[in-house]
Write a structure and sequence with these properties.
Elements (H helix, E strand, L loop, with lengths): L1 H13 L12 H12 L7 E2 L2 E2 L17 H12 L11 H16 L8 E4 L2 E4 L3 H5 L4
């Protein structure tokens, strides 16, 4: 009880930015967030399944197919528009800020959520082929 009290005071006084495991929100990604809001991107796109349905879900767009494929695709759409996305005539600085914001969001979680199963007291991811085949059991 006492440790909870001191921990609460610590969080109140220092905020949550310094907590271990917290993902840093850089100035560039904050600018990207402002642009995302300014251009009303959520009207067409989603984070964690919430938002519009005209454009793709963007929660994990930057880690799409691994590597930097997601960034390459996003840069092209942000620079030129296409497939229903308007060309917003963004500057390279604005595109980089939006990419930084999408990378920030990508690190915050996974969507859609993974399906897990319990088997003999073990939890495994349903769509993981090694667990499903019994190789890791």
């Amino acid at each position: 009880m006492i440790s909870y009290f001191f921990y609460s005071i610590y969080i109140f006084a220092s905020g949550t930015d310094s907590l271990p495991g917290m993902i840093a929100h850089s100035d560039e990604s904050r600018h990207g967030q402002e642009l995302f809001q300014e251009y009303h991107c959520i009207a067409c796109h989603q984070f964690y399944g919430l938002g519009g349905h005209m454009g793709p879900e963007l929660t994990n767009a930057m880690s799409y197919r691994g590597g930097n494929v997601g960034e390459i695709i996003a840069r092209q759409f942000l620079a030129n528009g296409g497939n229903g996305m308007p060309n917003l005539n963004l500057t390279e600085t604005e595109i980089s800020a939006l990419i930084a914001y999408l990378k920030f969001v990508d690190k915050t979680g996974t969507y859609p959520p993974k399906n897990y199963k319990v088997k003999w007291g073990m939890i495994y991811q349903e769509d993981d082929p090694e667990w499903a085949s019994g190789e890791k059991l």
